[in-house]
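Supplementary Text 2. Reproducibility record for the structural model of the 190-residue chain.

All settings were left at their defaults, and a single model was retained for analysis rather than an ensemble. We include the record here because the model underlies the residue-level annotations in Supplementary Table 4.
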Amino acid sequence: MKPFFALSFACGLLLRPMLAGAQGEIFRFVDKQGVFHFTDRLADVPEPYYSYYRARQREREAKVLLQGEVASSVTTPDVPRPATPAYEKPAGPSLVDQEEQRRLMWKGLVARWREELASAMTALEDVRSQRDQEALNPVLSQTPEVQTRIAELDLKEAAALAKLERARKALTEDLPARAKRENASPKWLE
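Retained model, structure tokens:
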């Protein structure tokens, strides 16, 4: 049993660099229950670990850039250097920056719909409070002017309820469905 374990362990150590190079970086983190998680997607990593891994990726990118600049500036007069292509900075943002932009876009959408929900709830409470004030006096509430104001408030209440329902549906149904279609992390919707 021990030789098999030792052989398995040795093979694992030998194959690990090859597998890591072929598949990219593996991110690991521990959740609140103490369970270890492993993923190859930075988007699935929760926030305390996400910032750490993102910073490490940026450091590696900067190091690669710096090494490319240093290698191109160092020349030796005695030994001719083979022609190697110089490292060129990618035209657009890095993958880490793109992922960060996506995360911020989703966080912004969630924040916008939460503000809409809070605004609709406040508007609904205000309309209901005004309507209750108009209907307090049973004699005055039967006058045509008060009846007209109550009808207008009923329309405002219906509009506030529609806005509230639209925001609720966006937060609980539409955004999660869109996130799933676009392969966005569900954690971005929290």
